[in-house]
Specification:
The structure holds two protein chains of two kinds.
Chain A (H helix, E strand, L loop, with lengths): L1 H27 L2 E4 L4 E3 L3 E7 L3 E5 L8 E4 L3 E5 L3 E8 L7 E5 L3 E8 L2 E6 L5 E7 L2 E8 L4 E4 L3 E6 L5
Parallel strand pairs in A: 2-8
Antiparallel strand pairs in A: 1-3, 3-6, 4-5, 4-7, 7-8, 9-10, 10-13, 11-12, 11-14
Chain B lengths: L1 H14 L3 E7 L2 E5 L5 E9 L6 E8 L6 E3 L3 E4 L5 E9 L7 E11 L14 E12 L6 E3 L2 E3 L6 E10 L5 E11 L5 E6 L3 E3 L4 E9 L5 E11 L2 E11 L4 E8 L7 E10 L5 E11 L5 E6 L3 E3 L4 E9 L6 E11 L2 E12 L2 E5 L11 H34 L1
Parallel strand pairs in B: 2-9
Antiparallel strand pairs in B: 1-3, 3-7, 4-6, 4-8, 5-7, 8-9, 10-12, 11-12, 12-16, 13-14, 13-15, 13-17, 17-18, 19-20, 20-24, 21-22, 21-23, 21-25, 25-26, 26-27
The chains are: A alpha+beta, B mainly beta.
């Protein structure tokens, strides 16, 4: 009879502990709202929305070997360069790992200003712009993101500037 | 009267801003070489000015003959935000080791004046690149050195991304890092951990160094040692790199519709005067488009002193709202960015977010308290389990 009670207490304790720990883990784990997993966008400003966490870890590899560590409470807009990122939230315990990709975008804008043209790099990567006259390449221009310059020419071709990594 | 109207219309047409714009994404596609690989790659053309566009697509470069464009011409209407097109690559049996490239160019044909509108006679084109990497026989690594600057007494982080471009796996990859001061004197030397990298894979070596040295410019010389070969990388970095720090933004005597005077308090934390520094502020509308972009004049900021940098925003046409804004501190080749919210009301601009965290609600306390209770619960459960299984249970059994 005594051992029956002991076994009953064993079972209650073991199952009670398991249920309590499971609900503790599910509650304490940060709730990640946005950005959604596998997001692909050309917009470099990304809104991170989450609860029950206070550190955003962002890295370009799943091992988080050199993470960018950002302290925040719940909503935060972070500007990221084009590339693939893995991110998670740290609170009492860590959240799931999600990934997001900022797609590189080349965007050239040409505006007539008198006899010249104002050319603007409206994309998110630095550009090498080839300037052509009579179908011949006459000059090259490096345009950083958001940079504008006044130039003359008949054709302008923008391509990404450098970088293999 | 008619002549007057025609004259005004003509003047308007002349004054209309003539703009061409075209985008393409992604800017580059990278593929690891495989013999006879056939692959279809999708690219998106962006019509950011929402205009009717006639486009010509062609390929050029070393691998142009290995590219089959599914379309050579495309038309986009002003209602189309973007349009996808595909190209197919057919790689040969063999290519020499290293990088091989091709460019796919999308050319916007110059506008014509058929509709009597003003037009731009120049052609605008954007390129998406195709990079094919062919592995080198044996062992071959490519690496880059990135250094995250730090304040005096804090950790400088050295990140060395390495790509194994060889056909063989790299078994033992490590780096030796030498730090040199401004007079080229060696300050310290240390090694990173050792790692293995499979063929075609990218991994990082990361090492921290506590900068117990005076504020200034330093040089890191990295010798990457992979199996029997080595690679040398070199880069300058700063200790006390946060040279200029934006500490406060004030807008006084403001009336909506007039010119707002932004007074930005900036501290030069560097041990030398910083010349030619200026601020640039971008304000974004609800769609995330830049609605204002204004700069301050250039300032020479004395060492270890605070200065006010002034810039002006013409708020004519601006409505009462909360706008996202980015403030850039630009000095030399450096630029630091901080994001804010500008709460614009009839006679006040409130700058929210120095530190750029936007807290949504004040429920943190109750959540925190619940978590505390849960943690106490876990500890109690552990104690009860230990008490039961290691003491009480044995005693009751006797």
């Amino acid at each position: 009879m005594k051992s029956k009670y002991i076994k009953l207490i064993d079972i209650v304790l073991i199952f009670g502990t398991i249920i309590f720990l499971a609900s503790f883990v599910s509650y304490a784990r940060p709730l990640v709202i946005s950005p959604i997993n596998n997001l692909e966008t050309t917009n470099q400003s990304v809104l991170f929305n989450f609860e029950r966490g206070n550190i955003i870890l962002i890295d370009d590899n799943l091992e988080f070997s050199s993470p960018q560590k950002i302290y925040a409470e719940n909503n935060l807009i972070i500007n990221l360069k084009p590339g693939k990122y893995y991110w998670k939230i740290e609170g009492m315990i860590g959240s799931e790992i999600r990934d997001l990709t900022i797609l590189s975008e080349i965007n050239l804008r040409l505006k007539q200003v008198g006899d010249l043209y104002e050319i603007t790099n409206a994309g998110n990567v630095d550009l090498n712009v080839g300037i052509y006259e009579n179908e011949n390449l006459v000059d090259n221009l490096i345009l950083n993101v958001d940079e504008s310059q006044e130039i003359s020419g008949e054709k302008f071709i923008g391509e990404p500037e450098g970088g293999n990594f | 009267m008619d002549k007057k109207i025609y004259f005004i219309l003509l003047l308007l047409l002349i004054l209309l801003p003539n703009v061409l714009s075209i985008g393409i994404t992604p800017a580059r596609t990278t593929v690891n070489f495989e013999s006879n690989l056939e692959k279809t790659i999708s690219v998106s053309i962006v019509n950011s000015e929402h205009k009717n566009m006639d486009l010509v697509i062609y390929s050029q470069g070393e691998l142009a003959e290995n590219i089959l464009l599914k379309e050579n011409k495309l038309t986009m209407t002003k209602n189309e935000e973007s349009k996808n097109f595909e190209y197919q690559i057919s790689l040969p049996d063999n290519l020499s080791p290293g990088l091989h490239t091709a460019e796919i160019i999308v050319l916007q044909i110059p506008e014509t004046s058929d509709e009597g509108d003003a037009y731009i006679g120049a052609a605008l084109a954007v390129t998406t690149q195709l990079y094919i990497f062919v592995p080198y026989p044996g062992k071959y690594a490519e690496a880059e050195l990135n250094i995250v600057d730090a304040e005096e007494g804090q950790d400088v982080q050295f990140v060395i991304p390495i790509i194994n471009r060889g056909k063989l796996d790299l078994v033992n990859v490590k780096a030796n890092i030498d730090i040199y001061g401004q007079l080229n004197e060696k300050i310290t030397s240390f090694n990173t951990q050792s790692i293995a990298i499979e063929s075609g894979k990218r991994t990082e070596l990361v090492s921290n160094w506590k900068a117990d040295v005076p504020v200034g410019i330093y040089r890191a010389v990295v010798t990457l040692i992979y199996d029997e070969s080595s690679l040398r990388l070199e880069k300058q970095f700063n200790v006390g790199s946060k040279i200029l720090e934006l500490q406060n933004i004030e807008v006084n005597d403001f009336n909506l519709g007039e010119i707002a005077k932004f007074e930005m308090l900036v501290e030069n934390k560097w041990s030398e005067q910083v010349n030619g520094a200026y601020t640039r502020t971008k304000v974004f509308n609800d769609e995330g488009e830049v609605m204002a972009d204004f700069k301050s004049p250039t300032y020479d900021l004395p060492s270890l002193e605070k200065s006010v940098m002034i810039s002006y925003w013409d708020t004519a046409g601006v409505k009462q709202n909360t706008y996202d804004a980015s403030v850039y501190l630009i000095y030399g080749e450096k630029s630091s960015q901080q994001d804010f919210k500008f709460e614009v009301s009839e006679n006040e601009i409130r700058v929210v977010g120095l530190g750029y965290v936007i807290s949504e609600k004040g429920s943190g306390f109750s959540q925190g308290r619940l978590l505390t209770f849960l943690v106490i619960g876990v500890i109690l459960l552990i104690l009860i389990n230990i008490g039961w299984f290691f003491a009480l249970r044995k005693r009751l059994k006797k």
